[in-house]
Design a protein that fits this description.
The protein is mainly α and about 140 residues long. The chain is built from three helices and no strands. Helix 1 runs antiparallel to helix 2. About 0% of the residues are buried.
């Protein structure tokens, strides 16, 4: 897998971890009283209260680990020695090469379509000949 794909996978992992972390915190966090003017919130039904205190630590460590892996991948990206002008020149060369290859592929496509039409015409003629050779049934 190339480095760009790895970076994309890592970004997806970080997003996944962030959404799950926030969702879990929203779901499992015990209620808090917002103001003395509001009534006391009902107790939050939890199966394991001690587990909630560990969850944010585990999730944040997984998020930090994923962010560090992302940083390592970014650091592994090749550094461009050339300036912006050299990069633009290279892009222009690659686009010209792409255009030449595109024209070549277009010619091959046209030749293949021509050959397909010839084969279809020959098949039609063969089918017609087979039908014309068939003798009508005499009852």
């Amino acid at each position: 897998m190339d480095i760009i794909s790895q970076l994309q996978e890592q970004v997806n992992l970080i997003a996944h971890l962030a959404f799950n972390t926030v969702g879990t915190l929203q779901r499992d966090a015990p209620p808090n009283r917002l103001s003395p003017n509001y009534p006391e919130p009902p107790p939050h039904p939890t199966e394991d209260g001690a587990n909630f205190s560990e969850q944010p630590k585990l999730m944040s460590s997984a998020l930090v680990k994923a962010a560090k892996q992302f940083d390592a991948l970014v650091a592994a990206l090749p550094i461009s020695e050339a300036g912006e002008e050299a990069q633009l020149k290279r892009i222009t060369e690659l686009q010209a090469e792409n255009d030449v290859i595109g024209q070549e592929l277009q010619k091959q496509l046209e030749a293949a379509e021509k050959e397909l039409n010839q084969v279809q015409e020959l098949f039609r003629q063969a089918s017609d000949n087979c039908l014309n050779l068939k003798k009508p049934d005499d009852n």
